[in-house]
C-alpha cells in the first residue's frame, strides 16, 4: 500500500479493482472502453473521446482591462501608502497616472503590456506583484481565445520519471465540453501518446489543477526522454491556487473531488485514487483484463470535466475582478 494513502482509500481501491476485474473478465479493450487506435509518426495509441453539455462562462475583455487599470499597486514602486495618497490626489486608475510627472513612465510601460494583448506578458507582469491565487489573475483569461483553452490532466506510473499512461485533454466546442484521452495500451505506446497529445495542446492556453507544479513539468520531462522537442510553455491557468484561496473556509481540503462535490453536488462512484493508478495499470498489463483501465479512464475524464466547470465558475464569480 502506498505510504501516503489512507487505509480506507486503499481498501476502497481494492474493492473497485476487484469489481472491474470480475466485470470485464474475458473482455477485450474495445469492449470495455469505446475508442479508436490512432497513429502518429512514431507509433500508435488508443484515443477515447466523449462530450458533455456545457456553456462556458468567460470574463469580458473590457471589464478585465478596467479591473487591472484600477489597481495602482500593479505599478513598480507603488505600495499601499503611495496608492492612498495618489487616490486622494484624484488619480483613480493607472491610465490617469499618465498625467503624473513621477509615474508617467511606469504607467505607460504597464499600459503597453496590457494593450499588447499578450496573455503571457500580462501574466508574468502580474505575477511580479500578486500571488498566483489573486483574483485579478483570472482577468488574464480575457486576453486569450477562451474557445481554444485546453484543460489537461495526466495519469502516471509514479511521481517522478515514470511513464505516463494516460494523457487527458478537454476543450469546449459550442455548448459542449469535449474530452480526448490518449491511452498507452502498453508502455511502448507512451511516446506516440505524448506526440499526439502535445500536438493538440500546442500553442493553446492551458488550464490545470496543480499542473504548473506537476503535470506540465512531468510531460516536459517525458518529452525530453523521448527526444520529442522542447518544453511546453503555454500561458497556463492553474486552478489549485484559486481553489485554495476561494474555498479555504468552505471545504476541509482543496482536492478536486472535494471542490466538485461542494460546488456542483457531484459525488464519484468507484473512483480510483491517483496513488493506485500504477497498481491498476500493472494489473491490466499482467492479466490482459481491461477492467482496471475503466476506472482510470473515468477518473481522468471526471477530472477534466470538473476542471473546465471549475474554471468557468471562478471566471463567472470573478466577473472582471469587481
UniProtKB/TrEMBL annotation:
One of its GO terms (molecular function) is nucleic acid binding. Pfam families: RNase_H_2. It comes from the Archaea. InterPro entries: RNaseH-like_sf, RNaseH_sf, YprB_RNase_H-like_dom. Residues 152-313 form the YprB ribonuclease H-like domain. This is YprB ribonuclease H-like domain-containing protein. It comes from Methanocella paludicola (strain DSM 17711 / JCM 13418 / NBRC 101707 / SANAE).
Amino acid at each position: 500500500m502506498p505510504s501516503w494513502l489512507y487505509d480506507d482509500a486503499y481498501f476502497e481501491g481494492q474493492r473497485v479493482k476487484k469489481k472491474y476485474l470480475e466485470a470485464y473478465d474475458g473482455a477485450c479493450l474495445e469492449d470495455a472502453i469505446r475508442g479508436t487506435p490512432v497513429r502518429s509518426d512514431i507509433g500508435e495509441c488508443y484515443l477515447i473521446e466523449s462530450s458533455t453539455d456545457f456553456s462556458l462562462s468567460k470574463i469580458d475583455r473590457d471589464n478585465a482591462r478596467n479591473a487591472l487599470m484600477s489597481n495602482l499597486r500593479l505599478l513598480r514602486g507603488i505600495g499601499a501608502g503611495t496608492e492612498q495618497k495618489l487616490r486622494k490626489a484624484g488619480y483613480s486608475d493607472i491610465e490617469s497616472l499618465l498625467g503624473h510627472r513621477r509615474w508617467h513612465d511606469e504607467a505607460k510601460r504597464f499600459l503597453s503590456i496590457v494593450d499588447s494583448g499578450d496573455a503571457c506578458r500580462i501574466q508574468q507582469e502580474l505575477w511580479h506583484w500578486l500571488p498566483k491565487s489573486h483574483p485579478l489573475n483570472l482577468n488574464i483569461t480575457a486576453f486569450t481565445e477562451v474557445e481554444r483553452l485546453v484543460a489537461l490532466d495526466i495519469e502516471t506510473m509514479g511521481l517522478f520519471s515514470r511513464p505516463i499512461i494516460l494523457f487527458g485533454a478537454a476543450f469546449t466546442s459550442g455548448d459542449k465540453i469535449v474530452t480526448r484521452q490518449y491511452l498507452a495500451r502498453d508502455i511502448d505506446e507512451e511516446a506516440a501518446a505524448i506526440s499526439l497529445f502535445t500536438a493538440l495542446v500546442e500553442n493553446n492556453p492551458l488550464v490545470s489543477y496543480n499542473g504548473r507544479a506537476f503535470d506540465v513539468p512531468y510531460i516536459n520531462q517525458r518529452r525530453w526522454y523521448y527526444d520529442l522537442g522542447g518544453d511546453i510553455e503555454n500561458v497556463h491557468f492553474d486552478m489549485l491556487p484559486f481553489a485554495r484561496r476561494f474555498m479555504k473556509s468552505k471545504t476541509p481540503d482543496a482536492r478536486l473531488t472535494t471542490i466538485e462535490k461542494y460546488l456542483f453536488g457531484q459525488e464519484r462512484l468507484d473512483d480510483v485514487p491517483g496513488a493506485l493508478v500504477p497498481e491498476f495499470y500493472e494489473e491490466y498489463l499482467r492479466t490482459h483484463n481491461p477492467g482496471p483501465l475503466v476506472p482510470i479512464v473515468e477518473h481522468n475524464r471526471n477530472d477534466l470535466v470538473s476542471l473546465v466547470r471549475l474554471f468557468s465558475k471562478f471566471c463567472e464569480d470573478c466577473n472582471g475582478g469587481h
